[in-house]
Amino acid sequence: MRVAFVGLGVMGYPMAGHLARCGYETAVYNRTRAKAEAWCAEHRGVRRDSPAEAAHGADVVFTCVGNDDDVRSVVLGEEGVLAGIAPGAVIVDHTTASAVVAREIDAAAREKGAGFLDAPVSGGQAGAEKGELTIMAGGEEPVFERILPVMRSYARNCTLIGPVGSGQLAKMVNQICIAGILQGLSEALHFAQRAGLDIEKVIGAISKGAAQSWQMENRWRTMVNDEFDFGFAVEWMRKDLAIALDEARRNGAKLEMTALVDRYYAEVEAMGGSRWDTSSLIKRL
Predict the structure, then answer these.
(1) Could you tell me if 174 and 93 lie in one domain?
(2) CA angle 98, 136, 10 (to 5 degrees)
């Protein structure tokens, strides 16, 4: 099976690498040419000059870019994926974007006789590098089942949530949960510091009970040590929360806590923390 990967950022670069290591004939495209050349120097694969060229002859085209506009550009643009894709091929979009753009791409892909999955991922850069991502997909089951063995090259958990758009909606749920957990953890650690507690002992006790979370296990120490130069950036989280809040305005969901945490992240950005890890919410306190 021949595959293409469009977008070699902090996530796409290692994801495409896993595809090549698993033996898939891989073509890559990245807006910054040097990044694609570096990838080709490291992996078996070929660089293409446009998304259309990358898609030409590919059975599956993966995209992982920044936002809705980027997805539209690399898929629907004059030199986009759909300009080069063959009928019967499948587009899998790993971008965290809106359900609206997912449905747009699906409709356009159908006109070309191509399949489509919206398949945002969770697990961050570390998960991408280790090949241990979680994928939430939206699309038709036959298309999902066909692509599932390929996605397992870099994911340990792949779930078809429902029709097109459902993957993006599930990712919004994911980000809403993370935002709330991090704010609660920030306040808890701040409280423990003010109370004069031995935080390591406190975390050792409560992390084995109902308060346990991935964020607690992996971020508490860096949070109390004022270390945030790593991980999932605040500006990326704000982009994701904006998508969720926009969707909530359409479906009537009340995201009061999410809106509040988004404002807190705006304060972190004002402190110069746009590229700090999302656990930097504690800096406000």
Answers:
(1) no
(2) 75
